[in-house]
Amino acid sequence: MSLSIEQIMEIIPHRYPMLLVDRVEEIEPGKRAVGYKNVTFNEQIFQGHYPGKPIMPGVLMIEALAQLGGVAILSLDKYKGKKPILGAVKNAKFRRMVVPGDVLKLEIEIVKVKGPAGIGKGIATVNGEKAVEAEITFMIV
Fold it and tell me: What residues form the membrane-spanning segments?
């Protein structure tokens, strides 16, 4: 199952300029998802990060993974209409710069859910090359 940007916006509350998932290619609700962020020079962040050498901030790559995790978990009927809140980031490793023109492939696996909290393991790649990986803790409110 894949999701368009319109379907993504029905699931998570994020909107421009903070919506960082453009398309979901695969989803197993409550378990895992694969999606994409198309990185373009038109994004506001590149006006200052950095002029003349635009680089996507690592925290936004983590946020994109967290949003994809939100899509995966909020796709379950029992969480419809809720909001995913970032609780913690562990073992984040940044391996490659991401620049305008790159397509960031996002993959998240929900490894634990207990009550309103859970943990996802995410990885983002560009052309098969690892850009970032992290363990993300979230709350559902």
Answer: none
Helix (H) or strand (E) holding 11: helix 5-11
Q: Is position 14 annotated as part of the catalytic site?
A: no
CATH number of the structural domain spanning residue 121: 3.10.129.10
The per-residue pLDDT for range 3-54, each reduced to its tens digit, is: 999 999 999 999 999 999 999 999 999 999 999 999 999 999 999 999 999 9
Residue 10, domain extent: 5-140
What pTM did the predictor assign? 0.97
Counted domains in the chain: 1
Catalytic residue among 31, 49, 82, 96: 49
Output the six-digit token pair for 74: 């909020």
User: For residues 29 and 16, is the Cβ–Cβ distance under 8 A?
Assistant: no
